[in-house]
């Protein structure tokens, strides 16, 4: 494996609109783009770094400087390679995901197969993806909703603030599409949360993501037991090892490559979820089509998808998975299905 070469570079994603959730707002997202070169093939990877993850471009690059894949005689032994990467340092999940994605892309290209093909997942079974509407003024919320309403079958709405009902009412003035809600831990009182959940059910909402604090599993379990809508974990579930801990507290889980260290662990989480009674959402950060296409390879195996991250930016430097009438469309390219542009 002495011919394997790892390279990386920082890149900043420019958002079409300010992205506002219950705790902060941003107009850019820093990422680190990764390449693995071997035997004429290039595997592409990405670490997306929204501020709440606690990683930066510098921390990712410092982590990647410690990665030495030349020690492996067989890169296709993915578990061994990624176990080594995982144990370089604690945390750094997005940095680890960038290696995981690039490795999967490289191996798929060597095998000349896409990963949904390697995993025997039917590309016809991809779900519709949500499109995210962040917290904003009435005029901007209406504008953003009107721009996308004809292209999607379901929208995702960021809540968790003092004007939650206003946000829903403004969107309902534009469309009657089904809605998924992400409260980003913004609700504190379980009784008020249940009251809001019942109201949202009447407004055509189909699920609620992480309404309570990630550490307050008792309130999440109580709300899940009483709610007329499924309650999904996001911040409460990061990795495979978290899943047993939250059993019974949620109806489903949101799996994100940047939280769980990449495609390999995400696949294991998807495989485990049914035995724990969880439905599965596949989510994302603001990302290029590189990381989105990597996650999309798993999408035929999940119930819900929120893979709109590349649609929220103006400077995507890859092309890959596309969205048609809201549905995720996988291509037949090998690996994760991307080309650099």
Automatic annotation (TrEMBL):
Q: Where does Mg(2+) bind?
A: 182, 209, 234
Record key words, sorted: Isomerase, Magnesium, Metal-binding
- Which cofactor names does the annotation list? Mg(2+)
For this chain's record, the cofactor binding note is: Binds 1 Mg(2+) ion per subunit.
Residue span, Mandelate racemase/muconate lactonizing enzyme C-terminal domain: 138-230
EC number(s)?
Answer: 5.1.1.-
**GO MF annotation terms:** magnesium ion binding; racemase and epimerase activity, acting on amino acids and derivatives
What the record says about family reads:
Belongs to the mandelate racemase/muconate lactonizing enzyme family.
PANTHER family associated with the record: D-GALACTONATE DEHYDRATASE-RELATED, ENOLASE SUPERFAMILY MEMBER DDB_G0284701
- According to UniProt, the name of this protein is Dipeptide epimerase
Q: Which organism is it from?
A: Dysgonomonas alginatilytica
